[in-house]
Amino acid sequence: MSPAAWTQSSTSPVRSADFVVAVVNSEPITNQEVQALSLRLLREARAQGLVADSAESKRLALDQLINEKAQIQQAIALGISVDDAAVNQAESNVANNNQISVDVLRQRLQQDGISLASFREQLRNQLLLTRVREREVEARVRITDLEINQFLAEQLERQAARIPADLNLGMILIAVPENASDEQIARLSERARSVAQRARQGDDFSALVTAFSDAPDRSSNGGIMGLRPLSRYPELFVQAVAKLPVGGVSDVVRSGAGFHVLKVIQRQSAPTTLMTTQTRARHILLRPSPQLSQTQAIAQLNAIRRDILSGRADFADMAKRISQDGSAPQGGDLGWASPGMFVPEFEQAMNQLRPGQLAEPLVSRFGVHLIEVTDRRDAPMSDAEQRNLARSTLREGKLDDAYAGWAQEIRGRAFVEMREAPQ
User: Residue 421: what pLDDT?
Assistant: First the structure.
C-alpha cells in the first residue's frame, strides 16, 4: 500500500472548492473527503478489472465516511484512546510495508501534498476504528466446542479426499485365453472360486500364488503388488476390496485378462490429523542504529547476498559473524516453523521463496533481514494447533456478520444530516 493510500479517505491534494456534504452528530464530512475516497475506490475497482461508476463510487465513499465518523465517535464515547507511541508504531509499520524509512515516508507524503499532521491523524483514526471494532464486535462472536469439532471433522474429510489411503494387494490371476470357449471359461471360473475359498480358509497365499497364478511376475513378488495409491489400481480391484479388512480375500473378479483373487495385505490410511506446511528458513538480521541507518543495512545485506550467490561467501558463516539475532550461533537457522510463528511481513516474504532461494533484503519491525528458505515439509498439527486453527477460522467467518450488525446499530443511533451542494 502506498503511503498516500492511508490518508486519501480524509486528506487529498484535490483543489476543487470545498463544502460540507453531511453532518454526523454535529461533525462535518466535506466534499473533498468524499472526492478523495471516491477516487481511491475507483482506482481499486479498476485495478481488479471491475467496471467503475463515478456516481456509485461517490455514494459508497460518503456511506463509508458516515459509518467511520459514527464509529470513531462511539470509540471516543467509550473512552477508547490512541497514544502517540501507538501512532509512531503505525507510522513505522507503513514505512516498513513500503520498504522505506520513516524519513523517506514523510518526504513522499510532502511531495504528495499531504501534511504530516493529517497523515498521523488518519493513522490515529484507523487505530481507533480497529480498537472499537475489536472491543465491540469480537465480544459478540461465540465459538462452541461443537462447532470446532464439526469444523475439524469436515476438514479431515476434505483432507482424506485429497490424500486417499494407500493399498497393498496380493493377487492370483487365473488367465483366460483370448479365444477361450464357454466351457473353458466356466472351468477357469470354477478354479478361481476354489482358490479364493482356500485363501479364505487360511491356506498360505504365497503358496497358492505359486501353484495357481498365471501372472508373469508371480515368482518375483509372490503375488504382492506393493503399497501404492488407489489411483494406481484398476477401479474394479478397488471396488472389490473396498469393504474388506486387512487379511480379507475378495470374491472372484473378472477382467479382460481373466479371473482375479485379491487379498488385502496392508492399508495405509490417510492422516487422521490435519496437516500443515512447515518451512525451515535462516536469516541474517541487521538492526538500524545511530551508527547504521536502514539504507546502509539494506546496502550491506545486498552486498552479502551477491557474495553468497556468487559463492564468495557462506550464508551460515556470515550469519554467525554479523547477524544481530539469537539465531546467529546456529548460522541463522530458525528451525521448522508453522504458519503464524513469524511477523506477517517476514512470513509473507518467506512463503514466496522456494527451497534454496535467497530473498532480497526485507525490512520488518525488527530490522533488515536477508532470508533463505532451506526446506519445506507437510507435518501433522497438534491437537491444540488444530483447535486454534478451527477457532480462528470460525471466528473470522462470524466476524463479518457481527460487524455488519454492529455497524448498522451505530449508524442507526447516529444523527446524520445530508447537505446540498452550494449553488
Answer: 80
The strand pairing partners of 369, in sequence order, are 285, 362
Ramachandran class of 311: left when φ > 0, alpha when ψ lies in -120 to 50, beta otherwise: left
- 21 and 30 in contact (C-beta within 8 Å)? yes
The segment(s) of the chain belonging to CATH 1.10.4030.10 are: 3-140
* All cell numbers assigned to 352: 514466496
Query: What was the pLDDT predicted at 62?
Result: 94
DSSP 207: H
Report pLDDT digits (tens) over 126-147: 999 999 998 999 888 999 999 9
- Mean pLDDT for the stretch of residues 345-351: 93
Residue type, 54: S
Digit-coded pLDDT (tens) for 26-57: 899 999 999 988 998 888 888 888 877 888 89
Round to whole Å and give the CA distance between 246 and 265: 6
Give the model's pLDDT for residue 396.
87
Strand 253-254's sheet: what is its strand order? Answer: 228-229, 166-175, 258-268, 253-254
d(Cα 346, Cα 333) in Å, to the nearest integer? 14
Q: What is the CATH T-level fold of the domain 3-140, as seen in this structure?
A: Triger factor/SurA peptide-binding fold (1.10.4030)
Give dist(CA 249, CA 104) in Å, integer.
74
Query: How many helices and strands, by DSSP H and E, does the chain display?
Result: 14, 11
Give the DSSP per-residue string, 270-313. Answer: PPSS-EEEEEEEEEEEE--BTTB-HHHHHHHHHHHHHHHHHTSS
DSSP letter, residue 100: S
CATH architecture of 164-268: Roll (3.10)
| Portions of the chain given CATH number 3.10.50.40 | 164-268, 275-380
Model-level pTM?
Answer: 0.56
- For residue 265, what is the DSSP state? E
Average pLDDT over residues 65-87: 93
CB-hemisphere CA count at 13 Å for 180?
16
Fold of the domain spanning 275-380:
Chitinase A; domain 3 (3.10.50)
Q: Specify which of 97-106, 162-171, 284-293 reaches the highest per-range mean pLDDT.
A: 284-293
Cell of 332: 541463522
* 371 C-beta neighbours (distance < 10 Å), count: 25
